[in-house]
Amino acid sequence: MPELEAVIGLEIHVQLATKTKMFCGCELSFGAEPNVHTCPICLAHPGVLPVPNEEAIRYALQIAAALGCEVAPRSIFHRKNYFYPDSPKAYQISQYDIPLASKGRLGEIRIHRAHLEEDAAKMIHVGESGRIQGSGTSLVDFNRGGTPLVEIVTEPDLRSAGEAAQWARLLRTTIRQLGVSDVNMEEGSLRVDANVSLRPAGSVELGTKTELKNMNSFRFLQRGVEAELGRQRELIEAGGAVVQETLHYEPQSGSLTSLRSKEEAHDYRYFPEPDLVPLAPTEAMLREARESLPELPMARVRRYQEELGLAQDPATQLAADPETADFFEQTATQADGVEPRIVANWVTGELAAALRQDGGEARAADSKVEPAALAALVVMVGARKISHGAGKAVLAALVAEGGEPASIVEREGLTQISDSGELESVVAATVEANPEAAAQVREGNEKAIGVIVGAVMRETKGRADGGEVKGLIRSQLGLD
Amino acid sequence: MGGLLELSVAEAAGRIAAGEVSPAEYLVAWRGAAARDELNAYLWRAEDPVEEGEGPLAGIPVAVKDIFCTEGVPTTAASRILQGYRPPYTAAAVSRLTDAGVSLLGKTNMDEFAMGSSNENSAYGPVLNPWDRGRVPGGSSGGSAAAVAGGLAPCAIGTDTGGSIRQPAALCGIVGLKPTYGAISRYGMIAFASSLDQCGPLTRDVTDAALLLSVLEGRDRCDSTSVGIAGGVRKPSREDLKGLRFAVPSELGGEGVETGVREVFEATLGRIESLGGEVAETPLPHAEHGISAYYLIAPAEASSNLARYDGVRYGTRAPGAGELVEMYEATRAVGFGPEVKRRIMLGTYALSSGYYDAYYGRAQKVRAKIAADFSSAFSAFDFVVTPTSPSVAFNLGEKSGDPLAMYLNDFFTVPMSLAGIPAISIPAGLAEPSGGGPQLPVGFQIAAPAFAEQNLLEAAYALERAIGFDQRPPAADVPQGPPGQSASGDGADA
Amino acid sequence: MTDELAGILEHVDRIAALDLEDVSPTSHVVELENVLRPDRPRPSWPRDVVLAQAPDPVAGAFRVPSPQADA
After folding, report:
1. What is the model's pLDDT at position A360?
2. How far is Cα B67 from Cα B110, in angstroms, rounded to an integer?
3. Which of A6, A224, A258, B475 is close enough to A249 for a disulfide, judged by CB 3.0 to 4.6 Å?
4. Do C5 and B225 lie within an 8 Å CB cutoff?
5. Which of C35, C37, C65 is facing A137, going by the closest CB pair?
6. What's the CA gap between A253 and A213, in Å, rounded?
7. Greatest CA separation found in chain A?
8. Residues near B366 by Cβ (< 8 Å), separated by ≥ 6?
9. A236: burial class by Cβ within 10 Å (0-12, 13-18, 19+)?
10. Which residues of B touch C68 (CB under 8 A)?
């Protein structure tokens, strides 16, 4: 049996954060009472007609620009015909063979196409099983029906479940930065399905693929793809063949259920939408989309590494959250004489820890810590006016109450002991008070020094510099 | 009272504007006439207190084909599946009329979902032709045509997808106009074939048609395919046809046209020449394939447009179904008539995977060819003319057993629909049907380039004056007003 | 019904014989592009109006029998 390689492509639906629906002026909402944001158009009453939302077009062009896509000079809408209660017209207005955008790239993964369409309504079960099937009746809420969607389809360039989840995160961050969508998987404004197959390593032909749905977090996406790859692998190794089908991933149990669906056999009878005229993005529209792009994550990571000297990990971590990245840059700019990578470590390290300690999900930009305050703190520590340990204590205070470091230092009396005479006498007293530890250190047990250092730090309320204390202990014990 | 019903809409509007007639008086007279409907032309008539309305058409009542949504007022498209449906909004075309002061007189009967050429496909019974109640009025706007011809309304609006205004107008001896595709908003018009449907007036004369069109046309932001008519529409006044060139398509001569119809057509060509117009033949090589293309495109779009009638959000739902697909199937089996079902099946087939290219795809190419044929013709001619219908009104039941024979009624009207160009039918004379019997109206069709409605109306007006068609259907047996005053004017009176 | 449909199909099949190589199919008579509307909310219809026509309104929603299998 030759070695098998995974071939994965993703199909992503992004709900756009416009004010109104794709084809009518009903407001978009989340969590409203059922059917309070509807009208004859999104309810598909007889005689109604769709009119496209110009902001949705603009957002779609921005997404296309961010993904480096070619924009079709002229694209049209198609009707995708199928019967289901969540589809009131019994067709979805989408794009078929002439989509708005194609042939893009994000990171290592090529984008096959991106197009505009409208979202379906929501069906709620009325029954005990918790699923629509077999529950007797369903209730339909059309509030969501008609929400603008951009569907993005990648080429099958992904090679592992982990890579798929990681790339999906990058896509999410990128789109979030454009401000065109909340891209929240739990809320449904970002939906990711995976097309999964295996083939002999080195082969160029594609194996039979299955489509995986219902993974509503990046973790579940990874697990789901892993589970399906495992299932296919077992099947192939046992001599079986993969059947093309749609599978529903159940996160709680990890099981994959085949949707006995007419999906594969379904004929959508696509034809051009006669109620809509073509989209022909003008040069001005394209330019506006390109120029509206903020610095996207990939570019920011590169700049942090090349221009600011950050290592890849902190650079990637910061770029993943634009607001934290902005916070970092504002701090770094004001932290005279301190290297940006040190500031980065404070932001991704000490500050992140302090925020977690404080409880809640607060991010740097939302906290009471001002970039100017953090900059001043980092400068103080760098100039050894306070110890690193004292710095952490000041940071905790900044997180809790805001303000600026200098006054906190004064208030708490945290100024580093710069008078070595004072420190020497504290060290001497502590060494004397810890004879066993002192003896162990003399004998070569380096670890025991920690006991004495700790005692000194407690005594000085952290105002001493740990390294300096260690040096003094060693010299007093006659070691250096 | 009788005299009021004789006025054309333009005349009535003038008298009302001059204060000689009160809007209420005029409305009440027409309400009374409409109430004497023995043709099954109306599915619903207004019975609320008369409101006069304000604007250039204040006091003018209009009969509206039951395919236009009218808020709070029953709208069925003559189908069981919309029985009891009252739309929560009003069609743009109707709003434009009421904004001008028009009053809704009633909703007229039609072929179900506009599918038909005889008004025998209504779920609420056929409409009778006022000229001979054993015959059809044409379709699908049969109710609107019969109402205007039968003295039950001063004017009406209908829809034309492949001839559904023009053909019933011809069979009922009145004027029917299909404007350029995009001239009038489709918002609120229950969709049959989206790329073909257009609203238009059915009136007693060309001037009234122009008057209604001038109010109806215009770009509507709720219909992204609507553009209106640049320059608007004015009352026509042309007195002759000097310098105008009229083309007769060489391919559309053929078999299937009744002798009487052909004679009236030829006579009308003679009249054009005596008015100074030039008449010559021109090729329209693909026009004869219009029926084939139309009966692929229209059912295909209809199969998609009618899919929303599923019993979920409005309309009828078949009771007792415990499962979703069962509910869909039962609702639609009971709710749709046989012609609608036939076209949905045909349309679904034409769009299905593996057949799309051979059917729908090809039909759209044929359509492009037909449009190109007309463009060519219009580079040398101002108008293209044909008989509107191959026959005069036929007997009820005569063609309803043979769908293909029924479809061929649209032979002359379908090419203009496919090309999207405007066309008008005016009554040109009477003729005996091929099976023998009393004479019946014959329509003459004039088509013009896209958005050339003003030229079209001017030519039609001049020709109408010269023809002087003043025959009316025989008076009904029911008395029409105080003794000595006949509401329906001349015509064979007992 | 089948006979009727077969007869109709036979007629419309005449277009199979036509030469249509050089033609791009047209769906629209009017050559418009980019007809869009501004992203401005307008009031939705009141729910009671929207549900007034529903065959089976329940708890502010449209009730339907469930499908036998997922579609």
Report:
1. 66
2. 8
3. A224
4. no
5. C65
6. 15
7. 96
8. B286, B289, B290, B292, B293, B418, C15, C18, C20
9. middle
10. 323-325
For the domain covering B2-285+368-489, report its CATH number. Answer: 3.90.1300.10
Q: Please list every residue in chain A whose beta carbon sits closer than 8 Å to the beta carbon of residue B77.
A: 46
Segment B49-57 mean pLDDT: 88
pLDDT for the residue B491: 37
Question: What pLDDT score does A320 carry?
Answer: 83
CA neighbours within 13 Å on the CB side: how many for A392?
A: 12
**Cα angle A260, A265, A267; round to 5:** 130
Name beta bridge partners: B65. B108
* CA A409/CA B362 separation, integer angstroms: 83
Any A CB within 8 A of B91 CB: yes
Q: Let me know if domain A420-476 sits in CATH 1.10.3470.
A: no
- The type of residue at B302 is A
Contact A72, A115 (CB under 8 A): no
- Phi/psi at A74 (5° precision): -150, 115
pLDDT of residue B494: 36
Domain ranges in chain B are 2-285+368-489
Residue type, A263: E
Q: What is the mean pLDDT of residues A309-321?
A: 89
- How far is it, in rounded angstroms, from Cα A177 to Cα A165? 18
pLDDT surpassing 70 at residue B478 = no
Amino acid at A378: V
Distance CA B148, CA B174 (A): 8
Which two three-digit tokens encode residue B121?
């496909």
Nearest Cβ partner of C18 from B289, B338, B341?
A: B289
Find chain C residues with C-beta within 8 A of A127's C-beta.
66
Q: What is the CA radius of gyration of chain B?
A: 21
DSSP state of A464: S
Which of B418, B425, B428, B432 has the alpha carbon at shortest distance from B471? B428
Q: Please tell me if residue B485 touches chain A, with a CB cutoff of 8 Å.
A: no
Question: For residue range A384-428, what is the model confidence (pLDDT) as tens digits?
Answer: 888 888 888 899 999 988 889 999 988 887 777 766 678 888 888
Tokens read off for A322: 């634009």
Tokens of A43: 């309810």
* Residue A461, phi-psi category: left (phi > 0), alpha (psi -120 to 50), beta (remainder): left
Q: What is the least distance, in Å, from the CA of C17 to any CA of chain A?
A: 23
Q: Are B177 and B200 in contact (CB under 8 A)?
A: yes
Instruction: Answer yes or no: is pLDDT of A131 > 80.
Output: no
Distance CA A300, CA A320 (A): 9
Report the Cα–Cα distance between both ends of chain B, in Å, rounded.
21
Is residue A363 within 8 Å of A324, Cβ to Cβ? yes
> How confident is the model over A136-147, as pLDDT tens digits?
899 999 999 999
Q: Across residues B31-45, what is the average pLDDT? A: 97
Do residues C53 and B86 touch, judged by C-beta distance below 8 A? yes
Is C30 in Cβ contact with B313 (below 8 Å)? no
- Under the banding of pLDDT at 50, 70 and 90, the label for residue A132 is low
Cβ contact B213:B231 at 8 Å:
no
Tokens encoding B480: 């029409």
Best C39, C47, C53 member to test A by mutation, with max A CBs in 10 Å, is C39
- Within chain A, all domains assigned CATH 1.10.10 are found at 420-476
Instruction: Count contacts between A and C (CB, < 8 Å).
Output: 128
Range A306-321 average pLDDT: 90
pLDDT averaged over every residue in chain A = 90
Contact B312 A274 (CB under 8 A): no
The dihedral sign for the CA sequence B319, B324, B326, B330: positive
Residue A445 makes CB contacts below 8 A (sequence gap 6+) with none
Strand extents, DSSP E, A226-323: 246-250, 255-258, 271-272
Distance, in Å, from the CA atom of B13 to the CA atom of B19, rounded to the nearest integer, reads 10
